[in-house]
Specification:
Blueprint (H helix, E strand, L loop, with lengths): L2 E8 L5 E6 L2 H13 L6 H10 L4 E9 L4
Antiparallel strand pairs: 1-2, 1-3
């Protein structure tokens, strides 16, 4: 499990969504599920995803952190 900071970047206009998670892989799957079902909690990201299509977005890990329980 990797925790840290990530971005979802629009390859067309360079705009990005920045987030953090204790489990980045799980969060990536969650974002994709919400975006594909047109039900994301961030309307700006959802509108952009709908307009430009999934293939014009990339998920980038900016910083990985060690999570200590």
């Amino acid at each position: 499990m990797n925790s840290g900071i990530y971005e979802i970047k629009n390859k067309i206009n360079g705009k990005m969504y920045i987030g953090q998670s204790r489990n980045i892989n799980k969060r990536r799957s969650y974002h994709l599920w919400k975006l594909r079902s047109n039900n994301h909690f961030n309307p700006l990201l959802q509108n952009s995803f709908n307009k430009y299509g999934e293939h014009n977005f990339e998920f980038i890990i900016l910083e990985e952190c060690i999570w200590m329980w």
